[in-house]
Design a protein that fits this description.
The chain is of the alpha/beta class. Helix content is 28%, strand content 24%. Residues 48-58, 65-76, 174-187, 271-284, 310-323 and 490-497 have low confidence and may be disordered. The strands form 5 sheets. An 8-stranded parallel sheet has the order 8-7-6-5-2-1-10-9. Strands 16, 17, 18, 19, 21, 22 and 23 form a 7-stranded antiparallel sheet that branches. Helix 14 (333-350) crosses helix 15. It binds S-adenosylmethionine. S-adenosylmethionine is lined by residues 329-330, 366-369, 372-373, 393-396, 399, 422-424, 438-439, 452. Residues 58-304 form the PRMT5 TIM barrel domain.
């Protein structure tokens, strides 16, 4: 049974909780006890042929039979697959691969035995159609042979996931952390170990990390790196008395779609608490799972998390902004109330109280859609008791149909004139005091607001007001393994084979950033202001940025840049998605992601230098980007060859 619902309901993924079990050759009983004890799945050793002592015994080797001089294979080692039903195996059991396995041992015999055992156990788990196997932590400083074996396995694995067990550890001594023998005695950063491993396995989408949470935690910045990694599983040893930091970490991981596994023996005389009062197995069968209080505690932490904000439950599919309906736009009441506030302030500045009943302000909504900004402007006029005349300019003829019926329905005919045309070509009958538009993309200028408003500026009075009056784009470097993998299927070969493969790595994606680690504060990229002296400025831009990733983060891997915008509508009224100033509960925009063809590895203390260009041609506008420090990346999207917006 999943961990229940967060306050206010959580329509996203369920959070499951498993339990790591000791070796038990009675698998049906082991499963039944744990599932009835409240867990969703067990992590279990799959052998039936030898005892758990054998696994612990460093001298243990799989039994091999030589059937000719060149080949050897292990004797059958597991129990029958019939002890559980196929659906029990696939839904409730995660295979635990023998922990003695050491694929990079100096001892050649141990290394070879390890290879045989690993392949044999994974083959058996595949035969059982398990969803996942938990792999032992790499031992020692090297993981090359382990990664080589896993690559061989991953190539023919079917759909099973492999979870590599990694302890959450980092020495706070950064000089040691960045030295090549990073996993040497006493000095380690386990993220480095994971990073080498997944690079050797080319970010394989079936390889995830199973993070072992130990009692002491490294610094917050270094822990945050893990949020950009795929599928977490935390080993919540030490419940139910977690420190405040551990509680925060657990809930932060919940926000990054992890699963939890509780492991080890109960070590507490469990105090009776809120979590205990809910369910009590004693009432049902006189038996209570020894780790039930720990499970209840995890469920309690999950359920008491803040409700998801309204917008996350409305969440439209934002992969394709253009496909989003006007209907969805119009649900974003926060956006329109910000516009209404801005128009109200502009009206009051434009017309004094004394002139309020005699002067009519001319306001043009350019890109009116189905009319919500017309409504917001009329409400602002009513609120400020100013007289208003509106031109609603819209190029989409289908939206114009709805706009006409809205004006009729609301009885606005006297005050609103609908103009069905492109604002860049319209010959306005008079000039406007206020020009209202909402042509912003997730990166501010990426939906060509600058070019459209340059065209519309002709019919704004010299001293007229543009709402928005300016907007700025922002970027920050991110670890985004999942996003990178989503782009990567088009890029399976190390050498780009065709234009199509390249295209996917040179395109910016509008995405909800769930599993990302934001490695540095955002920095502004391009700013546009309106109205502008068009004889002096162009819409081309270039910006070089230097990001200093906090040194206690340790090393990191940058998969690309998250992009945002902030717009000043008028004076102090703003609207935007830049994380530190984002307008609460506004859901019209998700961030944009600019990928890097090859992830960039950044060591502590090394600056990350990135360059962004906004380029304008006669028919299109596009961005180009590259990294120059710590190492040079390729130039992305030269001449807008992969991604552009047509004028
Ligand atoms: C992001 S939508 C906003 C619609 C509406 N104002 C709202 O806030 O719900 C932008 C609108 O501007 C229109 N538009 C874009 N470029 C335009 C142009 N050059 N001339 C006229 N309308 C344009 C689009 O068709 C679309 O209806």
């Amino acid at each position: 049974m999943p961990l229940g619902e967060r306050y206010g309901g959580d329509k996203s993924e369920s959070r499951y909780c498993g339990v790591e079990t000791d070796f038990d050759d009675d698998m049906p009983n082991l499963l039944s006890l744990n599932i009835h004890g409240g867990f969703d799945f067990v992590i279990a050793t799959l052998h039936a042929g030898f005892s758990s002592d054998a696994q612990m015994d460093p001298n243990y080797r799989p039994s091999l039979v030589d059937d000719d001089t060149s080949r050897s294979h292990a004797l059958p080692f597991a129990g029958s697959d019939l002890v559980l039903s196929p659906s029990q195996w696939s839904s409730h059991v995660v295979g635990k691969i023998s922990s003695w396995i050491d694929l990079d041992s100096e001892d050649e015999t141990l290394r070879k035995d390890s290879e045989i055992a690993l392949k044999q156990e994974i083959a058996w788990a595949s035969h059982l159609s398990l969803q996942a196997c938990l792999l032992p932590t790499p031992k020692g400083t090297s993981c090359a042979n382990y990664a080589k074996c896993l690559n061989q396995i991953l190539q023919n694995l079917g759909s099973m996931q492999l979870w590599l067990r990694i302890p959450l550890e980092k020495s706070e001594d950064d000089t040691d952390a960045s030295s090549p023998d990073f996993m040497g005695e006493g000095h380690n950063d386990s993220w480095e170990l994971w990073n080498s491993f997944r690079l050797l396995c080319e970010h394989h989408s079936q390889l995830s990390v199973a993070l072992d949470i130990l009692s002491s935690l490294p610094s917050a910045s270094s822990v945050a790196r893990w949020f950009g990694e795929p599928s977490f599983l935390t080993n919540a040893r030490g419940y139910p008395c977690l420190s405040k930091r551990q509680q925060r970490l657990t809930t932060a991981f919940f926000d990054h779609s992890i699963q939890i596994v509780i492991s080890g023996q109960p070590v507490h005389n469990i105090p009776l608490g809120a979590s205990e009062s809910n369910v009590d197995n004693n009432a049902e069968g006189g038996w209570r799972h020894p780790l039930k209080s720990y499970l209840d505690y995890v469920a309690f932490l999950y359920q008491k998390m803040d409700p998801l904000p309204e917008q996350e439950r409305f969440e439209p599919l934002m992969d394709n902004l253009e496909a989003q309906t006007y209907e969805t736009f119009e649900k974003d009441t926060v956006k329109y109330s910000q516009y209404q506030r801005a128009v109200a302030k502009a009206l009051v500045d434009r017309v004094s109280d004394e002139n309020a009943s005699s002067v009519t302000t001319v306001l043009m909504v350019v890109g009116a859609g189905r009319g919500p900004l017309v409504r917001a402007s009329l409400q602002a006029a009513e609120e400020t008791e100013r007289k208003l005349k509106i031109y609603a300019v819209e190029k989409n003829p289908n939206a114009v149909v709805t706009l006409h019926s809205l004006v009729k329905l609301e009885g606005w005919e006297e005050r609103v004139t609908i103009v069905s045309c492109d604002m860049r070509n319209w010959n306005a009958p008079e000039k406007a005091d206020i020009l209202v538009s909402e042509l912003l993309g997730s990166f501010g200028d990426n939906e060509l607001s600058p070019e459209c408003l340059d065209g519309a500026q002709r019919f704004l009075k010299e001293d007229g007001i543009s709402i928005p009056s300016s907007y700025t784009s922002f970027i920050q470097p991110v670890t985004a393994c999942k996003l990178y993998n989503d782009v990567k299927p088009w890029f399976l070969f190390p050498h780009i084979k065709s234009h199509k493969d390249l295209l996917h790595f040179e395109t910016a994606y509008v995405v909800k950033l769930h599993r990302v680690a934001r490695l540095a504060h955002t920095q502004p990229v391009f700013t546009f202001t309106h109205p502008e002296d068009l004889s002096k400025t162009s819409n081309q831009r270039y910006k070089k940025l230097r990001f200093d990733i906090p040194s206690d983060t340790g090393s990191s891997l940058i998969h690309g840049f998250a992009g945002y915008f902030d717009a000043t509508l008028y004076k102090d009224v703003h609207l935007g998605i830049e994380p530190s100033t984002a307008t609460p509960n506004m859901f019209s925009w998700f961030p944009i992601f600019f990928p890097l063809r090859t992830p960039v590895y950044v060591q502590p203390g090394t600056p990350l230098e990135v360059h962004f260009w906004r380029c304008c041609g006669s028919t299109k506008v596009w961005y180009e980007w590259c990294v120059t420090s710590p190492s040079a990346s390729a130039m992305h999207n030269t001449n807008g060859r992969s991604y552009w917006v047509g004028l």
